[in-house]
């Protein structure tokens, strides 16, 4: 009779524990995972036969907590799986080497591990939804901005061409007057500069003509790296090229493809600290060529991640950049039916990922 009552009390404790864990998980906020896992661990500890002698450790990719020192000699372990992949574990240990676990306690541990796995899956889905929503909003904004930019570029092209043409005619007429000739040179130079800005805006708006052909991106990357070797040395920045295949073919405009590679590498060099490492990668999936540039700089602020591809937005000091380099890259990539994404690395720096279709 006594054993039956004891067993019944243990089952009640286990059921109470499962109820508490379920309540914690239902109300869990993924921004406060430490608190949620800590509450689960102490609830689980109380669900065991000897709570005072039991310690719980929960380890996941998001957080890790312990209720106390884990005894490696006497412990139970249950894997935490997220989308059928191991994502951590729950460990229960006993301080007293003479004690032992009940069979039901392993089942309790497995049940809680399953619930935590479900929680982590829910969090992953929420994060993916939030990320996708932000990408769609950003894409919409850039699309609208591209339409406006295309209109402005077309409107500016004609007056700029007229300014340049008439200035050159006037220079021929006043070639003997040094002061007038110098002033006209300034007008011509500024008109040429403005025309280049308009050209870059048209790249962003996907309005530049293209000569699409089958291109192997590998030589383009290696040539760009070779040409920029002096820039790497001047900035005292190291680089590594990770390309396992010699041929990665896609349909692209060769000149514009080179612009993508050059602009992203130059951008990475600018933001890299001395002795920093830039990683240049290229590989393929079934339908795409993926090109990645990673640096070890200070990374991007949240506001910068939202606006990084907009024309004239720059995080460089005044005079160091026009804010058109990355917007040009975005325009070229978009005109090739590809995508580009900027994100911060887990440790330091940022990564730009370009995906271009093979055909």
What's the short version?
The chain has 359 residues and is of the alpha+beta class. The protein is built from 9 helices and 11 strands.
Please tell me about this protein's structure.
This protein is an alpha+beta fold and 359 residues long. The chain folds into 2 domains: 2-131, Beta-Lactamase, CATH 3.30.450; 209-359, 2-Layer Sandwich (Heat Shock Protein 90). 53% of the residues lie in helices and 20% in strands. It contains 9 helices and 11 strands. The protein has helices at 2-26, 33-46, 103-173, 178-204, 217-227, 229-235, 254-271, 302-307, 325-335, and strands at residues 54-60, 64-66, 75-82, 85-94, 212-216, 238-242, 249-253, 277-284, 288-294, 339-344, 350-357. Strands 6-8-9-11-10 form a 5-stranded mixed beta sheet, with helices on one face. A 4-stranded antiparallel beta sheet has the order 2-1-4-3, covered by helices on one side. Helix 4 packs across helix 9 (325-335).
- Element-level helix/strand string: HHEEEEHHEHHEEHEEHHEE
Number of DSSP helical runs: 9
The value of Rg in angstroms is 30 Å
CATH class wording of the largest domain: Alpha Beta
* % residues in beta strands: 15-25%
Unreliable stretches (pLDDT < 50, length at least 5) are: none
CATH superfamily descriptor of the largest domain: Histidine kinase-like ATPase, C-terminal domain
Q: What structural class results from the helix and strand content? A: alpha+beta
Helical content, roughly?
A: 40-55%
Shape, principal axes of CA atoms: elongated
Average predicted local confidence, pLDDT: 79
Domain tally: 2
User: What order do the strands of the largest sheet run in, or round the barrel if closed?
Assistant: 6-8-9-11-10
């Amino acid at each position: 009779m006594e054993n039956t009552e004891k067993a019944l009390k243990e089952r009640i404790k286990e059921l109470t524990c499962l109820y508490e864990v379920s309540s914690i998980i239902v109300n869990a906020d993924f921004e406060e995972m430490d608190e949620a896992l800590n509450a689960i661990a102490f609830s689980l500890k109380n669900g065991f036969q000897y709570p005072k002698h039991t310690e719980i450790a929960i380890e996941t990719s998001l957080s890790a907590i312990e209720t106390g020192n884990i005894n490696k000699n006497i412990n139970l372990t249950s894997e935490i799986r997220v989308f059928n992949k191991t994502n951590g574990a729950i460990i229960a240990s006993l301080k007293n080497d003479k004690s032992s676990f009940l069979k039901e306690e392993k089942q309790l541990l497995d049940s809680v591990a399953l619930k935590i796995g479900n929680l982590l899956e829910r969090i992953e889905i929420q994060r993916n939804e939030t990320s996708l929503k932000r990408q769609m909003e950003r894409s919409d904004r850039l699309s609208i901005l591209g339409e406006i930019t295309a209109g402005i570029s077309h409107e500016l092209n004609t007056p700029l061409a007229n300014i340049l043409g008439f200035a050159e005619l006037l220079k021929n007429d006043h070639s003997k007057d040094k002061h007038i000739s110098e002033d006209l040179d300034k007008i011509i130079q500024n008109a040429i500069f403005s025309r280049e800005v308009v050209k870059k805006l048209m790249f962003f708006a996907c309005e530049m003509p293209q000569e699409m052909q089958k291109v192997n991106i590998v030589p383009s990357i290696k040539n760009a790296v070779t040409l920029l070797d002096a820039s790497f040395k001047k900035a005292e920045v190291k680089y590594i090229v990770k390309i396992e295949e010699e041929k990665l073919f896609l349909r692209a405009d060769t000149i514009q493809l080179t612009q993508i590679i050059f602009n992203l590498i130059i951008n990475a060099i600018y933001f890299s600290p001395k002795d920093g490492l830039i990683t240049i990668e290229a590989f393929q999936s079934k339908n795409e060529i993926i090109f990645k540039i990673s640096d070890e700089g200070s990374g991007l602020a949240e506001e910068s991640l939202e606006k990084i591809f907009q024309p004239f937005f720059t995080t460089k000091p005044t005079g160091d950049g026009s804010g058109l380099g990355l917007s040009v890259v975005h325009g070229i990539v978009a005109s090739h039916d590809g995508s580009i994404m900027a994100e911060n690395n887990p440790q330091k720096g940022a990564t730009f990922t370009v995906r271009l279709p093979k055909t």
